């Protein structure tokens, strides 16, 4: 392979990316891929979004935004000016200079990495992407995925990283509902399989993101993301264990956290809650512990945090028992109203939401459970559908217990406190209110 030959693809692709003339692809038009596609289009690239979901593709091509964190005006503009279009036809990968893979990486039933979505995307890329293009994996995955899982698939067709294909990893850092930090102003870590791979990936993202942070390898970039999310899972596990300890000590964990938070250095505030929800924080660290098990190492903090966090829904139910006991009521036969079922405030996602387990536990003990969540019209618990009930204070007055799981900012806490016979507050949403009908974690 002559040096000149090796740089042919590289220099041509570098020029197209640098000039903004490149046509770029994004596979997966969800809460990560759609905002990325819009920012790449706003940066001047022509963007093709790929998704298997016909509904997403149709909405996207009509300029109908379906991801809260995307600015509707920005989205409509890039659709109208032709900078962005969506398709289910992966053959269009034949026309792109780079492709970013933004597909889900859930855990399987046995809590092992489910690589099926990444695999399906790579299958399409192998079939349609011409030689000399850039492939960036964004999906959160175990360290080594890009080098050990993706690269061999390309090498099997005789392509070499840094020549016939340029491979990189760049973790997504989307915080759903965060109005301060979005795709453009959140620093973007990038790691390449080779130096040229890195250089081209930096070139691609530098137009769309204010700050690009190159690291020395794709595996390093994969590990950066897992550190970020493991950091959160472990610290949330720590503060939840603090809540369990404070409960036994008769001390308010909320007061302890607030006071500790006054330390101006060396402390970062996390809050106890009903459990660990979302499709990232409860999931991503297990990609790391799974990989380390293969290397005969046990990631103890990850497993311990998971133990504590998974104990919290049961702890919430114990507080319901404690509260009903005051009124000589049992959970069995009681009417319980749950406020908020999404995994965190002001989002509509219920994946891994602790509310689902709290409701399941209460129903299993004979409670009649209703819920309200303005962001979640319906859920399924134990195979049975439940629909969000319009919240009225009469409904709360008629219930034996109100359980606050998700502190959506739209809730009127004064009315809720005054209308609830008993209020189990798992988020300290009623902070500053002293009423003897409130029980906090
Ligand atoms: N939670 C607590 N106590 C806390 C913080 C969070 O109980 O102090 C709970 C939340 O209620 C939620 C879960 O933990 O159920 C996860 O919350 P999160 O704030 O980590 O939110 P996610 O999972 O939507 O987004 C996180 C991002 N969040 C932040 O950095 C604030 C970020 O780590 C990642 O970009 C994202 O996961 C991801 O996609 O990996």
Describe the structure.
- The structure is a single chain.
- The mean pLDDT is 96.
- It contains 14 helices and 15 strands.
- It is of the alpha/beta class and 441 residues long.
- Helix 14 links the parallel strand 13 and strand 14 (423-425).
- It has helices spanning 3-19, 33-42, 54-61, 72-80, 116-128, 145-155, 195-206, 218-249, 253-260, 284-294, 300-326, 354-364, 393-397, 413-419; strands at 23-27, 46-50, 84-87, 98-101, 133-137, 165-169, 188-192, 212-215, 335-339, 368-372, 378-381, 384-387, 401-404, 423-425, 438-440.
- It folds into two domains: 3-216, NAD(P)-binding Rossmann-like Domain (Rossmann fold, 3-Layer(aba) Sandwich); 233-440, NAD(P)-binding Rossmann-like Domain (Rossmann fold).
- Bound molecules: ligand SAJ.
Descriptive terms for the model:
441 residues; alpha/beta; Rossmann fold; 2 domains; eight-stranded mixed β-sheet; five-stranded parallel β-sheet; 15 strands; 41% helix; binds ligand SAJ
- Name of the CATH superfamily of the largest domain: NAD(P)-binding Rossmann-like Domain
Q: What share of residues are in beta strands?
A: 5-15%
Helix/strand order: HEHEHHEEHEHEEHEHHHHEHEEEHEHEE
Query: Distance between the terminal alpha carbons, to the nearest Å?
Result: 65 Å
CATH first level of the largest domain: Alpha Beta
The residue fraction in helices comes out at 40-55%
**Contiguous uncertain segments of 5+ residues:** none
Over all CA atoms, what is the radius of gyration? 24 Å
Bound molecules: ligand SAJ
**Category by helix and strand content:** alpha/beta
**Helix segment count?**
14
CATH topology of the largest domain: Rossmann fold
